[in-house]
Amino acid sequence: MSDTEIYEVYAIKYARHERTAELNFMDPPDIHGGSMPIDYFVWVARSANRTFVIDTGFSAETAARRGREIIRCPAQSLSLVGIDASAVQDVIISHLHYDHVGNFDLFPACTFHLQDAEMAYATGRFMRHRHFRTPFDVDHVTGMVREVYKGRVQFHDGDAELAPGFSLHRIGGHTAGLQAVRVHTQRGWVVLASDASHLYANMQRENPYPIIFKVDEMLEGYNKLRELADSEDHIIPGHDPLVMDYYPAPAADVEGIVVRLDVAPSKG
What we know:
This protein is α/β, with parallel strands linked by helices. The chain has nine helices and 13 strands.
């Protein structure tokens, strides 16, 4: 553990979607019509020696086409924590859904880290089915294939340590190759779940978000997240607005935009 680095971890909110609660659960709760919006984030993990960006968000064009409210460009928003997207060396793509891999072209210097299973899924037979292909944008998928041919994609087959204190873990479930990120911080091991759990409530109630490839992997994934993290308070869901309430902004001028995840949450 002595050579394990300590990372600062940030969530940057870049978009929002107003919706009702029944859209967020496989088994809708008995609160039909109740508002339960979701937020969209990109994440940053930074140590003294390495910087990793996790996911790249979506563009204004995609937001307009899919009826989402975009607040700011995710790539440009990295400057709020002192990062220039054009100079980033490592980008983790948790999975290839439109809201996690758009804007990849704004990261010209990086290596993209992706699971083998995710590329096979996004380019294979399951995309014949509307349920599975709707959350993908074909231009993003073909664009990532082009990045493969440029030698800019590093594939992973399951769990992988990229640096001391920073590792990837295939969860699956939501997509075939969804991966979470485990990061060593000053408060212990934090897990960025991405869409392994969209909301705190998905995992707490064992009631998954309804876009699912394999239900069994989704449910077992909750256990894996718990095994990887120091506690449930160390697990960060992928789309929950509560993240912005529980964690502090690093500075007053980014209140409501950026929060630090390497400090303990405050839940009132």
